[in-house]
Amino acid sequence: MSELREFRLPDVGEGLTEADIVSWHVKPGDTVTDGQIIVEIETAKAVVELPTPFTGTVARLLVEEGQTVDVGTPIISVDTSGGPAPAATPEQAPAAERPQRQAVLVGYGVKEASTTRRPRKQPPASEPPASEPKARAAAWTDERRSEAEERGGKAAAQSAPEARERVRAKPPVRKLAKDLGVSLEALAGSGPAGSITRDDVQRAATGTTRRYDGMAERIPVKGVRKHMAAAMVASAFTAPHVTEFLQIDVTETMDAVRRVRELPEFAGVRVSPLLFVARALLTAVARHPLINSSWAQDDQEIVVHQQVNLGIAVASERGLIVPNVKDAGSLSLPALAAGLHDLTETARAGKATPADLSGGTITITNVGVFGVDAGTPILTPGEAAILAFGQVKDAPWVIDGQIAVRKVCTLSLSFDHRIIDGELGSAALRDVGSMLTDPVRLLAWS
Fold first, then answer.
1. pLDDT at position 114
2. Which of 57-71, 72-86, 336-350 bottoms out in mean pLDDT, i.e. has the lowest?
3. Among 222, 257, 288, which residue terminates a domain?
4. Ramachandran region of residue 318, left (φ > 0), alpha (ψ -120 to 50) or beta?
């Protein structure tokens, strides 16, 4: 006798209320074991792999790839009769006995009452009379659910072969779609005879699938990009931003970068000027702790953080994200280099976790990699300062009254003027510049 269990979309942390189904790793008929990764989802913060809490056979995928679903929504049904059934959890208990809270993914911690279910978007076609007994109402609900699932299963079975036949894509494009977690069946190809191109796949991966309305192009905003847009608007119109600029000679730092790359302690780790910028900012925080703080609006307090979680702005496939190196101020230079390297590589691959993206206290954005000299960066929400590091280039520089060609770059420091006044912001920026001009000063102050 089959024993079907539903796995509901869990809250993966940070009070998120919905997620997009990116790609399924299983299909109906597959055998799964407790803890096996079965699906990738994209939340407003990151792409997360979800394991199943069941051992058994996949009976049905209840949600299609590309669909946005609320936390607590059943996404897969597993027949556990063929293997040892796990102990019942509150999520699998009968509805009448289940406590009113959201499921939580193991490893991200429980946040009681951290999320709220959104109102039902569409009322059901019909409801049982309010006067009917609860038992009859429950039976009515089960009957309607079974009918809906049966209709959905038949429709999926009929449409899947047709969808596979319609898909036209070359093998490299299919591989790219698989690597990026994009369902080809959900795309409208822009290539010859409706074939799907690399651009189609990449736009889908970044949430920018095109839709044309007359002469205009409409790009849907969701997932990480949607969160980024909301966060930037909130930051720009909440914290009074001030940006200061400082042009510096980094010739000595560039020489130090080359020498450090040759040291055995840094073997296998990418050493770049960003490492020295990060160390200089961490040292500036130690000298000026108030720049590593937050404004607590509800309590009308300034919260000065004792630990520096250093954020690095990363342009990923799915938009701009800011993962952070935890307690970066306590790390040695080799450990900091390894932390920066691992974090940025993970973020660019779209594998940053909600934990990686939460809890930052101050940020660096490296606009120089895009060939840009300077900018006015917007604060990461909840932080008081962000440092932009511009491109390093050859430029004329006056030394002891003589013009010489030196390695020059521009630093831009944006800060929350409620917390950091012009004097403090200038002092912190000047200190960072002094340490990058003379790495010996960086050693002396660290």
1. 38
2. 72-86
3. 222
4. alpha
Asked if the model's pLDDT at residue 90 lies above 60, the reply is no
Annotated catalytic residues are: 417
Same domain for 34 and 53, yes or no, is yes
Q: Provide the angle, in degrees to the nearest 10, between the axes of the packed helices 273-287 and 251-261.
A: 110
**The token pair that represents 269 in the structure block:** 């780790």
Question: Could you list the residue range(s) of the whole structural domain that residue 343 is in?
Answer: 226-445
Cα(356)–Cα(46) distance, integer angstroms:
9
pTM over 0.70: no
pLDDT tens for residues 276-312? 999 999 999 999 999 999 999 888 899 999 999 999 9
Same structural domain for residues 242 and 186?
A: no
Helix H or strand E segment including 277 = helix 273-287
Quickly list DSSP for 138-183: HHHHHHHHHHHHHHHHHHHHHHHHHHHHH--B-HHHHHHHHHHT--
Residues 86, 193: one domain?
no
Is residue 132 in a domain?
Answer: no
CATH number, domain with residue 201: 4.10.320.10
